[in-house]
Amino acid sequence: MTDFFDAVRATLKHRAALGIGKKKSAAGERDRNGARTREMPANYSATGAFCRDLLPEAGSYYRQHFGDAMRATSRGWLVRCPFHDDKTPSAICYRADGGFHCFGCGVHCRDVLDFHQRMTGLSFKAAAQALGAWRAGR
Fold it and tell me: What is this structure's pTM?
């Protein structure tokens, strides 16, 4: 019986060495909400780098975008969703992580950068540069 388990271990080691069975993510892959995943190419550090610490604070960014139409709650701010016609506030901007979620149309953004990408249609790098969160190459 131990010969069987030794053979299985040897096969698994061989498959791992060849990279068989590992999931490879494609650049155009989407998460469960339909948003594109943000896989960074291996050479990003040569061309520049994204720095999350340089993103604007959620309150100031959303205040700039929504103005006085924000109603404060314990977790964030209620706003009218810019992604569909809205007469009453149906979306929330979260204070802790800068996320955005609309309960009317279901749009969900993970952070300020994701929201900015959806609003402007920019790529990850262009949106990060527009928000000042992209450092030039080192």
Answer: 0.63
